[in-house]
Amino acid sequence: MATKAEKPTTTPPATPTREITQEMQRSYLEYAMSVIVSRALPDVRDGLKPVHRRILWGMWEGGNAAGSKLRKSANTVGEVMGRYHPHGDSAIYDALVRMAQDFSLRYPLVQGQGNFGNIDGDAAAAMRYTEARLAVIANDILGDIEKDTVDFRPNYDNSRKEPVVLPTKIPNLLVNGSMGIAVGMATNIPPHNLGEVLDALMYLADHPDANTKDLMQFVKGPDFPTGGTIYNEKDILTAYATGKGPVIARGTAEIKEAKRGFQIIITEIPYQVVKSDFIRRIAELVKDKKVEGIKDVRDESAKDIRIVIELKMDAFPKKVLNALYKYTELQKTFHFNMLALSNGIQPEVMGLKTLLEHFLEHRRQVVIRRSKFELERAKERAHILEGLSQALQHIDAIIETIKKSATREEAHVNLVKKFKLSDRQATAILEMQLQRLAGLERKKIEDELEEKRKRIAYLEALLKSPRKLLEVVIQEFKEMREAYADERRTKVIKSTLREIGDEELVPEEDALFMLTHGGYIKRLPPDDLRAQKRGGKGLIGIATKEEDVVSHFFIANTHDSIMFFTNSGKVFQVKGYEVPEAARQAKGRAIANFIQVSGTDQITAVVRIPKDQRGQYLFMSTTRGVIKKVPVDAFSHVRKGGILAINLRSDDRLGWVTRTSGEDQVILTTAQGSAIRFSEKDVRSMGRTASGVAGIRLEDGDAVIGSDVIPSKAEKGYRLLALMANGYGKCTALDQYKVQKRGGRGILTAKITTKTGPLVSAHVVNEEHLDIIAVSQKGNVIRTAVKGIPVISRATQGVRVMRLQQGDALALVVVI
Question: 252-329 in CATH: which number?
Fold first, then answer.
């Protein structure tokens, strides 16, 4: 019995074994490189991650460029996912949305229609509701891609080709920045101003040895789409030199006075801060009592950001604002980490110069490849035109040859053989229409041939000359700058955050400073107020709010320290240049923007301390006749929140503060027409917190309205200028005022009547004082010569100095 043949047994080949640690290392490395190269990091050349590049290419390829009809976002997402990026529609749509957000990208690459999200953190509408197309600037990111300017590679299923990098004329990596978290590394590149980056590229092209500091002549710092302010040139330089480093950014906030206290108005917030989260954080701080003085927070934003923070009446506005900087994202640190892919595969942390060099080389290669492509096409066309030109010169023989040929193929062979043409030239001749035989058409062929020969010569010369190639690159940068550059949005402060400004860059010049009772201050050039004759009606010197009046008008240098004394006896200090210059009729800025004065305090005296001037005294006088002398050095370190200058009784207020030498005399004047003159030496030097001593004894209902200094070297010609509420004034020689001991009742200095009104101001003047500037309660200002005011005796009414309107009264006088 035959037995069934047994099947031969085969042993499968043994699988090579590996240590699990080696396998995990290899697999993890492959995964990490895939994330780094294919997902998370941008290419240094076009500044794009693969998903963004595929979206732009997909829209360009599909005819969805700028100027085309808007197309549903779902259509774009579907095409990109099906052709190039099979990683899910949500990832593609999120990337598309971000490229359309003007608060995320400095120069959006996609133009969207519909709800594409907002700065409050609200998500975009579903892709089936929104529409999009490429923004105009994206045309210059993809332009010339059809001219073999970049390499292409197969897509994920090898059915199509996609660009490895885009031939962008825009330095997109720096201009729009980039964020991404890869495996073991991350990138964080801020947006920049396009005009500044292009200027730096053009400079670097001509000066390849330039260093980072040279380039920062053009690139001042990041330029965030949300504006704000960044600080410290040294930190920015470090970040640009090394590719890493922190830079402090702040939003834009201003303190303004409202009907019931002060407000903090926030009009810009730092980059990447979600507005709704920011407001919620403020509410939490108020609830937890970490920030005190806030009454209400409102979001009044429409197209532009406007967050209104209402403050309580007793709040210190500057102190509240500082707390917001400290505890909220109104102040934020942006950490530079300029990591990008070099040559498309190698992650590298790059400084500003390296980034610009990579882009410059990319553009050079694009121009080379484009020129080679155009040269090849020009030569091909010139070759055809040469054949057509030759045919037109021998047209009868050409026609005869074609007529004698039995077939098209035979005619083709005969033409090549008889006239020594190439196959392409012979084909073009056979396809030539009879209308090309017309004289004008023949001329067009000759002209086109000449143009192509010139183009070929130009392109050949261009490819042989590195300098000419660079000039083409620079010219294209100029074109991009003209087309897209705009003003910087983010302000750059060169000094550190602790410093208010760079004093060395502020010119030293005298200026007029005007302060209102309501707390508004401004600085303007002295020439803004023209001189007028005595008795004139004046001109409008400041736009005041309803019920607001001018309280101080003084002259100081921009480098002087200006001390503000309040009725409660506190003193604050700012530099002259910190007060912004304004137009003559402008209202100015709230003083609370510069000092932490409370809503209940009123500034009653202003003293300027020239730079490096010490060793003198500040002489203080109150409305109740109390006086005090304190060394200027005691106020060398005035805190932002102010310090105490004098201890006052509850019914008294600090009214006047002047500088003295220690050897001067002082004269006090009252509203009812009394005056007392005494030596400064009668008052001993005191500490800041002392209460002072009696200067003059007052009658019931009387009060001090003026306190001024008579210099120790005062000679003949000094006099007391007294101004009254109804616009009357006079000068009286000082020798009519005997020197007394402090604390007396004084002597008569003016005859007070209903016509003149009470005294409102008194000043010591001499022949060197050329003009006075008088300001009424309604803001009318007149400038007139001191010598135009007559010198008369003490017990007189004076003459009219300023003609006032009905219901107006003199507020103050400054002597120049």
Answer: 3.30.1360.40
